[in-house]
Amino acid sequence: MAAKPPPRLVDVAARAGVHVSTASRVLNGSVDSKVREETRLRVHAAAAELRYRPNALARGLKTSTTTTLGLLVRSLSNPVMADMARAAAARAWELGYVVVIAEDDGVITQRAWERLVHEGRIDGMLVASASIGGPILDFVDQASLPHVFVDHVHPGSGRNVAMREADAGRMAAEHLLGLGHHHFGQITGPPAFDSDRRRSEAFRETVIAAGDPAPVRWVADYTEASASEVAKAIFAAKNRPTAVFVSALSHAIGFVATAQRAGIRIPDEMSLIGYDDDPLLDYIGVPVTSIRMPLAELGRIATGALIDQINGSAPRDIEIPTLPIIVPRSSTATPNGG
Amino acid sequence: MAAKPPPRLVDVAARAGVHVSTASRVLNGSVDSKVREETRLRVHAAAAELRYRPNALARGLKTSTTTTLGLLVRSLSNPVMADMARAAAARAWELGYVVVIAEDDGVITQRAWERLVHEGRIDGMLVASASIGGPILDFVDQASLPHVFVDHVHPGSGRNVAMREADAGRMAAEHLLGLGHHHFGQITGPPAFDSDRRRSEAFRETVIAAGDPAPVRWVADYTEASASEVAKAIFAAKNRPTAVFVSALSHAIGFVATAQRAGIRIPDEMSLIGYDDDPLLDYIGVPVTSIRMPLAELGRIATGALIDQINGSAPRDIEIPTLPIIVPRSSTATPNGG
DNA sequence: CTGAAAGCGCTTACAG
DNA sequence: CTGAAAGCGCTTACAG
Fold first, then answer.
1. Which backbone phi and psi does B72 adopt, to 5 degrees?
2. Of the residues A54, A74, A91, which one is the last residue of a structural domain?
3. Do A225 and B279 touch (CB under 8 A)?
């Protein structure tokens, strides 16, 4: 049944003919620890032969350290979060950490927190789930646990890692303005999502700064169905915009499908620019011009910042320097096919 | 900086006026451990007041148990895997476990294994990544670590947790046969994917058993682009099938887009049935009839089976009993619009 | 330069 | 019914 137990430090010490404390010293390799070169070699050889790896629990108990990070996400099924999460996990692995996931479905949050934080399982937490005013803040605030907010910013926390959302909104507006549009609409997500608010606001401000009327704004959940409902309202409006900015992948998909069914031709009758890029966007009714965000960098940098915090750095807000990229496809053109 | 340290068992013992070993006994609550009712109450009260939670590392070190599961997946960005993974994680949480994720990008596998298994971080592993003959088997075989293969079956391992793929293929075929089709095509994924092979094979066999010619078979990677290339080949074939079964969500999306661009009308000129369901399928050029698999059950049951193994049960192959469901949309009809 | 000891926070036989 | 002791596998001052 159970195979032979893994080698312990005492086993490598014995094989190298030294005391366990000496073995520990060389393996933890503080450069200035005075141990004879020959001894060092013997210990390393023994460890390699035995394929020794220190028991994480024992080490952790002694050092009050787990080399484990928590990742709290709203939904792994969200492709955008998934991209961020994989980059975060990959970076954590590179830096010697392991990551445990907890889905924040609103119910589990408190229990997740207890199990991960109170039981001492993690050194820090990436919080990618909390919407503004969500309950997570209550836990996080009382804890001394290092943590960062990823993507979903908490103003004043001093722990936000965010992308250049304002630039995304601005670039979307400039793209459409550059094509000659003057009459805009936009679909945003629910108001609790701060990152959405920042890009939507910048879109609006850029349009206004250009001297055009403020975009008409609709709100939709992050589902194709909700975006579809809103799209119908937009198509039925008396004074239709000639160009629309939507704030999520699901919005773009729902919008295009609904336009096709309503007989609205994109981009001839209406231009559409989306937020969040995906290969999929090349393969729907009208390939959708969209804004690609540096999600992998977000994950990587957030993880790095968290680990810095664990190592004693003071938390600070970070903005990912990389600019968003507009991926041009077929859904944007000059107004009226002009 | 660091807040007050979490309470230890010795703290609750002191507050309850008992020895730490007594406190441990009541908190671990073996029913038959003879401890006076009054003592029991005092200890529980003290633990509650202090919000005591046992340190996972200390307990784990003592009991050689981590209440942590590993989850090895190919890519979190795969929406199907994501659905399975969330259900698995949710079930693990219910059963008192925590889950650490490791992405198997082919490079990290060995290091992931060392870090998770050799360092004693996990009690068992859900392997959802390994394609047939992949390197993971080398590690897994030598280890005595409890593990199950999820979705990607390893014949003979006796540890497979799989869905009714053959039924999925059969049902797809029967759906099309029932509409009157006699001339079939199919797109499968790369041959290394066993679950795909099982459904594709069943599709083929069902068609043959009905007395029709064997479906013409094409192979595509699991990308829209690859499916699109294959779709072009299908449309260009001299003797085109009237109905096609595709083996992945990305296949369906690529296929529909390419059909529209080629002017092939679905379902009038060709019927399409897909595998893997998604709300998205309601919102592409032609809403695609597809087969929904019980992914959440897969994740839940696999997790349960793994934990059973950890608790001493012998591993065994498990088939998820739930039948797939056909979600009818607009992409399938009688041949020739007839 | 290396060994011996203490201790991280638990659990679990073993005494009493 | 409850306490005292040992020990899980490490790391780290402290001696020597």
1. -100, 110
2. A54
3. yes
- Judge if B169 and B307 occupy the same domain: no
Among B77, B105, B257, whose Cβ lies nearest the Cβ of A79? Answer: B77
Q: What is the CATH number of the domain that holds A268?
A: 3.40.50.2300
Cα dist. B95→A119, A160, A331, B89 in Å?
Answer: 16, 33, 48, 10
Is any atom of nucleic acid chain D found less than 7 Å from the CB of residue A76? no
Q: Which of residues 24-63 of B touch strand C (CB under 7 A)?
A: 24-25, 27-28, 52, 54-55, 58-59, 61-63
Whether A29 and A124 map to the same domain: the answer is no
Please indicate, yes or no, whether residues A77 and A17 belong to a single structural domain of this protein.
Answer: no
Burial class (CB within 10 angstroms; exposed 0-12, middle 13-18, buried 19+) of B151 = buried
Q: Token pair for residue A187? A: 């679909």
Contact yes or no for B115 and A121 at CB 8 A: no
Co-location of B212 and B242 in the same domain: yes
- Quick one: closest CA in B to A60, which residue? B57
* Residue-range definition of the domain harbouring residue A140: 63-162+295-319
Minimal C-alpha gap between B174 and chain A (Å): 28
pLDDT of chain A, 338 residues: tens digit per residue: 446 788 999 999 999 999 999 999 999 876 566 788 888 899 999 999 999 999 999 999 999 999 999 998 888 888 888 889 999 999 999 999 999 998 876 655 677 778 899 999 999 999 987 665 555 556 665 668 899 999 988 888 899 999 999 999 999 999 999 999 999 999 999 988 889 999 999 999 999 999 999 999 999 999 999 999 999 999 999 889 999 999 999 999 999 999 999 999 999 999 999 999 999 999 998 999 999 999 999 999 999 999 999 999 999 999 999 999 999 999 999 997 54
Do A250 and A277 form a contact (C-beta atoms < 8 A)? no
- Strand D bases near protein CB (under 7 Å) are 1-5, 7-13
Amino acid A120 CA to nucleotide C5 C1' distance, rounded Å: 27
Q: Give contacts of A258 with chain B, Cβ < 8 Å.
A: 283
| A95 within some domain | yes
For the domain that residue B20 is a member of, what is the CATH number? 1.10.260
B67: left (phi over 0), alpha (psi -120 to 50) or beta: left
Tokens 């690609």 identify what position?
A292
**Whether residue A191 is found in the same domain as residue A270:** yes
**Number of domains composing chain B:** 3
Choose the closest CB to B54 out of A82, A112, A119. Answer: A119
